[in-house]
Amino acid sequence: MKLSELQKNARAMLAQAGIDDAAREVRWLLKYALSVTDADMISGGRVLSQKEIDSVELFITRRVAGEPVSRIMGEKEFK
C-alpha cells in the first residue's frame, strides 16, 4: 500500500468517527508513526511495509476510540 492510500483511508475513518480536522490529525499520526516528512506526505508514493501499515492502523483505531492524539504520540504538545 502506498502512503497516499493509507493517508486517504485513515482520513476517511477519522472523519466518519466525527473527528474534527481529521486531515491534520492523520498527518500528525503518520509523521509520528512512520517518521515521514511533509514532502513524503505530499508525494505519497512511498510503498509501506505491513509492519508500518499495522502501526498506523493501531494509532487510527485508538484515535477513533476517542484516545487523544497527544496520548497516542506520548507528547503533550506538538505542531
Which structural class fits the helix and strand makeup? Answer: mainly alpha
The biggest beta sheet is recorded as:
none
Distance between the termini: 27 Å
How many extended strands? Answer: 0
Sum this structure up briefly.
This protein has 79 residues and is mainly alpha-helical.
Task: Walk me through the structure.
With 79 residues, this protein is mostly helical. The protein is built from five helices and no strands.
Q: Main traits of this protein?
A:
globular, 5 helices, mainly alpha, single chain
Secondary-structure blueprint of this entry?
Blueprint: H1 3-16, H2 22-34, H3 38-43, H4 50-64, H5 69-73
